[in-house]
């Protein structure tokens, strides 16, 4: 169970948010059996997987309403009667991002430590809990750049948080290159073992900008 912050515990930055930075997006077609058994999906989505494209995202935000932060998230695909995507696992290295993400869009963020390093054209990303690395991957972009946007890889989110339903449709764009991604270490106790499924595509987007609008909220 993820602890819920109290209203007085954090500074509020209400939507919309506009963020800039760089991102790595891996596109998957996750099997239903894998999602149900290994996807670490919350109870309200159990038995609700409806397929569609899934995304693993690593983002290094250099500008946001709460300052720079890093992010790792998983969207397995579409769920339920709404057939919308859901972020089922997400880590960031900013408490302000965690608490505002939950309050603004119902996104189940958790705060962890990140190392994000780039050397000789390769990006190394490590996510840690109390100095224990549980996610470690390397990314090497290659080839020519091309325009990338959510028009090609749409995101249409449905989340539940504290008895509320959140419907959010972010939009993003940037310049992308294809990328080769190696998973060096994933500890399944912390994050789903996406290295068990071969991605359809991996793209490094820099510059990267995304707009998170005010959601539709239903009590």
TrEMBL record:
Signal peptide: none annotated. It comes from the Bacteria. InterPro entries: Acetoacetate_decarboxylase (IPR010451), ADC_dom_sf (IPR023375). Pfam families: ADC. This is Acetoacetate decarboxylase family protein. It comes from Algoriphagus marincola. The lineage of its organism: Bacteria, Pseudomonadati, Bacteroidota, Cytophagia, Cytophagales.
């Amino acid at each position: 169970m993820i602890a819920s912050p109290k209203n007085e515990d954090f500074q509020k930055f209400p939507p919309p948010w506009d963020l800039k930075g760089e991102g790595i997006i891996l596109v998957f077609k996750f099997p239903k059996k894998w999602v149900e058994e290994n996807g670490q999906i919350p109870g309200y989505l159990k038995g609700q997987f409806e397929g569609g494209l899934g995304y693993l995202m690593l983002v290094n935000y250099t500008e946001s309403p709460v300052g720079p932060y890093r992010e790792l998230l998983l969207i397995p695909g579409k769920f339920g009667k709404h057939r919308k995507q859901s972020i089922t696992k997400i880590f960031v290295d900013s408490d302000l991002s965690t608490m505002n993400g939950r309050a603004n869009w119902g996104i189940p963020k958790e705060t962890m430590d990140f190392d994000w390093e780039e050397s000789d054209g390769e990006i190394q990303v490590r996510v840690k809990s109390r100095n224990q690395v549980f996610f470690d991957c390397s990314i090497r972009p290659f080839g020519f750049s091309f325009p990338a946007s959510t028009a090609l890889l749409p995101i249409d989110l449905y989340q539940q948080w504290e008895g509320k339903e959140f419907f959010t449709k972010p939009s993003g764009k940037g310049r992308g290159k294809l990328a080769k991604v190696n998973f060096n270490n994933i500890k399944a106790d912390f994050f789903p073992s996406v290295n068990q499924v071969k991605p359809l595509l991996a793209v490094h987007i820099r510059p990267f900008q995304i707009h998170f609008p005010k959601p539709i909220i239903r009590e």
